[in-house]
Amino acid sequence: MKKSYMILLLVSSLLLSAAAHFFFIKEWLEGRFMIGPNDGLSQMVPFKKFIYDQYTEGNFFYSWEFGLGGGFYSQLSYYFSTSLVFLVTVGIVFLLETMKVIEHPDLIFWADTTLFVSIARLSGIILAATFAFRYMGARLMPAFTGAAIYGLCVMYMRHVIFWEFFSDAMLWLPLIILGTEKIIREGKTGWFIAAWSLSFFDNFYFSYIHLIFLFIYIAFRWLIPLTEQEQPRWKQFRLFFFSGLASFCIGAISFIPAAYGFFNNYRPPYEADIPLFHIQDNILYASKYVILPSILLLFLFIRPLYKVRPFKFFAWLSLFLIVLHFSPLAGSAFNGFSAPQYRWEYILSFTAGGAVAWGLQSLNKIRWKPLLWATGIATIIYVLMEQLMKEAVALDFHREWLLAVSFLLVAALLLFLYVWQKKAWLKLALQVSVLLSCLIVVHEYERLTMSEKFNVGTVSRGFLQSPEYDGAEQRELIEKAKEAETDPFFRIDWMNGLRNNTPIVQDFNGTSLYSSIFNQELLFFYWHNLKIDMGRESVSRYATLGNRANLHSLLQTDYWMREKQKEENAPYGFSPFAETENYIMYKNDWPLPFIRTAQKVFYEEDLEDASPLDREHAMLSGVVLKEKTSQSAPLTREENLINQAGLETKGAAYENNLLQVTEEKGGINIIPPPSASDEGDYYLAFYLKNKEGNGFALTVNDYRTTRKPGDSIYKTNVHSILVRVPKEEKIKLRVPKGTYELKDIELYEEDYEELRAAAAKKAPSPSFEWKNNRITIDYQNGTDEQYMVLPVPFEKGWHLKVNGKKQPIEQANYAFIGIPLQEGDNHIELVYYPPFFFFSVLLSILGLMGAFWLIRRSHEQKTP
Length: 864
Hints:
alpha+beta; eight-stranded antiparallel sheet; globular; 25 strands; five-stranded antiparallel sheet
């Protein structure tokens, strides 16, 4: 391509990208952001801020600040930790910060950059798709138009606004197709290896999606050859296999730790039926995922175009993907055979762009009669769809329908004129009209769907500094706690509303996290081992410690902050520390040291039938280990008082484990037996499930939590609940009107003797340092302590040396690190690297060597 054409293409793609973002450019000038109010503000912006801060401080793998602590390199690889677009952004921003051009980037800075990075990314996507179509034989203008259909698809904007890292995948897809065509046509492997290496490194999830599409693409290519001279299929297969293997190895340094993080996460099986076929949206003009260009519908019914092999290929491939779009089973397959998700439809936009590109290039093959038939059929389809939409949904899509029909009629008119006159300017006018229609569709999608329907227009600079997100009063109390503490590892139990990543936003060590990938040991710790209610059921969040004082002390959570009208459930033994007009912070009267040692050893196997309260006591008085190697220490178990308690119904009937609530809100009252003291708490445990499958709110006295509907893809399938209740004469369990299964009710009294004893125990005073991914401890064991326990989550990747010798790490207290101690001096070194990291580095080196050999060999061989 000539240099002048290249410059023109670069400028055109950038201008087209900017035009596609025109709505959000205006919004940005008025103080609003191109960010969704939910996941955008709760995950995307905080994670970018967090990773930038960690990387630029020289910490690449593990952080105590990531929820309760975790390997963020692997657990955030689904998001930004290995995103190439983000890493380039980090490099540029860090350079600007180092040169003092900008201050240290805060949250608002990262919110600002979303728009500008998106403009640059979309420009790159259009360029990449143009190059792919050009290589396949399309002329420059049709190729650019087809690339615009791909880049300006509604899914790009949806992804950027809600889950920005998703949109990076659109960069790699055209390059993968270019590499695939290079192998099929020339037997050259360079582009294929480069594109797949980038994809494997960037995001394991979308590499999986691209791999599925690659198989589909190759199958269609073998069915519909595009050129007369293509490599033999056996040779293609061999090159695909070895090039793919080399690419995987190159990307292994990112892919393997990321894949491990995914498999070490836990998602309950999706239990709902997944139908083979279901029409869930209107992809002609009113879909959230993909809107087919009107001209594509016109081209699909023009029979002479199918004599053009590239058009036939992309048309049939598009039709096949349209069928897959309406198959929840296919949506499940693209989502790892889990709940159906619609995240892959940008691929359909790519194939649609290819079909339009070759349709535009083959206008000379169109005749009057086929065009007339196609226009009539397409118009009838739009009219029928309008009627179906009126009957199927209550929403009004008449405006969108009028736009789509207008685009169709304009395209048809220009086609008729071109068939009649054969003027070059008519072909240009048709292509310009397609570009304009794409811009109008994406602008309307941004304005109506994103900004108004999904409330993106509410995300402003003012909101990011408001009490609903990051209020000044909240930060004031957090800073007071930081000033009062000399220990940098203390935690604060606080989050703003349902924003579990508030600790990242407000720069403190917290007890909550919202992410799609977790260390599953922490999830099991919450769901099963200790039954900690989070205030909201979810598979992708954990939050708070159930206001349970024992857990607060064990996990260094010595501060508890709430709005003043929500302070009734402060943990027992916490005293007011500081307050502002609207918020109050409490401080723990019985804190425990970060490093604890234990002589008593308990085992999970022996505590299998113990209550969560008994397990708390075992953790306070000793250590609970996973692997049993000796006799468990004796443990006095707390008595279940439920048989001594009274029970009465309120607005409900309860019999044979069935609770039928007849009033708007009702349930049962539990009257505990007389107690020797008014001090302490009750622990109320029970199994509760809505028989009708509805989501509901549950209250126990002043405590409130919510449960997901039965068909939610985010439900935990855990129905055993434990609620800590400050001592009162009645424990009131309330749920909305409905029918519930309520059983296995248990009631325990907690006087906190074990916590007081643990707090009074003389704390070890070892030499201790934690820097990035390395912990060093020097401890003199002169009291025959058996184990050291750290409130650091147990996960693969930690390596332990004691006195210079490698030692296995014990899984202690269900989800944390336990270290076997020796008598006398214990020089302890703990180092974290992502799982299989050094093996992955070795694979990457071998992959680069293999890629160099494959590329050199494929270029040396002559194409037949």
